[in-house]
Amino acid sequence: MTCHRVVRGEELVDEIDEGCYVNGIDVSAYQSRPDWATVKRSGLVQFAYAKATEGAGFIDEQYARNARICREQAIAFGAYHVFRFDVDAAAQASNFLRTAAIKPGDLAPAADVESGQGSAGALATFLELVEREIKTAPIIYTNAAFWEGTMGGTDAFAGRYSLWIAQYDDAPAPTLPAGWKAWRLWQYASTGNVPGIAGDVDLDRSNGDLVRVP
Question: What domains sit in the chain, N to C, each tagged with a CATH number?
Answer without folding.
Answer: 6-206 (3.20.20.80)
